[in-house]
Design goal:
By secondary structure, this protein is an alpha+beta fold. Helices cover 62% and strands 8% of the residues. The chain has helices at 12-21, 26-44, 46-56, 62-97, 102-107, 110-131, 138-166, 169-187, 203-206, 228-237, 267-275, 289-304, 311-329, 354-368, 373-389, 395-411, 416-432; strands spanning 212-216, 221-226, 241-244, 251-252, 257-262, 277-280, 337-339, 345-348. It has a 5-stranded mixed β-sheet with strand order 1-5-3-8-7, covered by helices on one side. Strands 4-2-6 form a 3-stranded antiparallel β-sheet. Strand 7 and strand 8 form a beta hairpin.
């Protein structure tokens, strides 16, 4: 058996970095410190840079220098407050009109964080140099301040454009779809060698004989990620076989099993394995494919609600979901088994259950689209597209979703011609999947 590589990139450090990237802390702080560093350079090396600054900038008097620096400092602080206020307004609009779960994605936007950081850096520079205005060459002090101001205005213009596009429904759906595709490529990394089992192995076939122990959760929360490298290292060192029971995205209750194991680990090994499970108060998209899928499904459900009835938004969601699923279904089924260097099975981690992922998207979309023939037809069209690119082992899954749509349409009180349009497309898809005899549900 080959060793699965899916999930090995998710370590505690990578998850911590991802969490910091989603906050208005790390990047704004680092960028704002550049303003302080620039001020220290101007104050410390002002005399050495005076001649070069004099050739680039005019040399104003000391009162002009103080006036310029105080004006820039006050303006930068005012605009910084405006940026945060505008960001909160955009967050509120997005949460109300699109989805509350979008706030996590908005917070990790690099452009928004950069804007706040550069405005803070401009303020810090102006305030620091203003205190030593009498010892700094006037041309250098004002010239660098003007440069920071021009840069701040340029970034502010880009920021306004950015937030204007972030509250556009189709644009945000496209961003989520692209993010989902990137997560799929990272989590379901294709192995170089063919897997002889083609993903059909079962945990019981790989589990060695012996007493089965349970690794219990120390606290409740969502499993944000599982550090596969740590589990593999501990399992190899202590001759264990570890089967993960709480994959990324699952809510784990304190005292319930995170994993089971065969072997005799030490107390230290158990603590290390427990530390490989990153428990969080909320779900995150880094190692959890369901998160982005559920986010898109939620947008479609809100659009199909009676109060909104926006079928075209639901169609956009279906289109991007079909593009994401095409990336999954054209691959070999990912092997959940990871072996050590001696090819001994060590860790069983079901990082992506294809059947569950399809059900996560198509079951709620099918139920909410009931009665909306336009959306139902697009849902079938997406399944038809997937049928053309899916590997043979996935055809049964696709056919089951097509049959469910056909059954719902036959049970609905719909216009006979609409009903026939839907059922005709169902028959066509099932025939392309090699299951044409099951096109008509009982």
């Amino acid at each position: 058996m080959r060793a699965s590589r899916s999930g090995k990139a998710f370590t505690l450090l990578s998850i911590l970095t991802a969490r910091l990237n989603r906050s208005f802390l790390l990047l704004p702080l680092l960028v704002s410190l550049s303003g302080l560093c620039c001020a220290l350079v101007v104050i410390g090396w002002g005399a050495a840079l005076e001649d070069a600054a004099g050739r680039l900038f005019p040399a104003p008097d000391i009162q002009t220098v103080r006036s310029v620096l105080s004006t820039i400092a006050g303006s930068a602080l005012t605009v910084l407050s405006l940026v945060y206020s505008l960001t909160l307004v955009v967050f509120t609009l997005a949460a109300g009109n699109i989805s509350p779960r979008l706030l996590t994605r908005f917070a990790e936007d690099t452009m928004i964080q950069m804007t706040a950081g550069i405005l803070a850096a401009t303020f810090f520079y102006a305030v620091m140099v203003l205190q030593r205005a009498d010892t700094v060459p006037p041309s250098l002090a004002t010239g660098v301040a003007v440069a920071w101001s021009v840069g701040s205005i340029a970034v502010l213009i880009v920021f306004i454009h950015k937030v204007a596009t972030r509250i556009t429904m189709d644009e945000e759906i496209g961003r989520i779809g692209a993010s989902l595709g990137a997560n799929i490529d990272r989590i379901l990394e294709e192995a170089e060698d063919e897997d002889p089992t083609d993903g059909k192995a079962d945990a019981e076939d790989c589990r060695p004989e012996g007493e089965i122990g349970r690794l219990l959760a120390a606290r409740s929360g969502y499993v944000a990620a599982v550090d596969l490298e740590t589990l593999l290292r501990v399992a190899s060192k202590h001759d264990l076989f570890v089967e993960v029971k709480a994959p990324p995205g699952q809510f784990s209750v304190e005292g319930c099993a995170l994993a089971s194991y065969v072997g005799k680990p030490t107390d230290e090994a158990l603590r290390t394995m427990r530390g490989a499970f990153v428990i969080s108060r909320q779900r995150t998209p880094e190692a959890d494919l369901d998160f982005s899928i559920l986010l898109l499904v939620e947008i479609a459900q809100r659009a199909l609600s009676p109060g909104i009835n926006d079928g075209f938004t639901a169609i956009a969601v279906i289109d991007h979901l079909s593009a994401a699923f095409a990336r999954i279904l054209r691959r070999r089924p990912p092997s959940p088994l990871t072996s050590d260097d001696q090819d001994v099975p060590r860790v069983w981690l079901e990082n992506a259950d294809i059947s569950r992922l399809l059900a996560t998207a198509y079951h709620p979309l099918r139920r909410n689209a009931a009665g909306n023939v336009t959306v139902t037809l697009r849902l079938l069209a997406s399944l038809q597209s997937l049928a053309h690119v899916a590997r043979p082992q996935y055809r049964g899954l696709l056919a089951s979703h097509v049959r469910l749509i056909a059954e719902d349409m036959k049970a609905a009180e719909a216009n006979p011609r609409d009903q026939e349009d839907v059922l005709s497309l169902c028959r066509e898809i099932l025939e392309s999947l090699g299951e044409g005899d099951q096109a008509e549900p009982a």
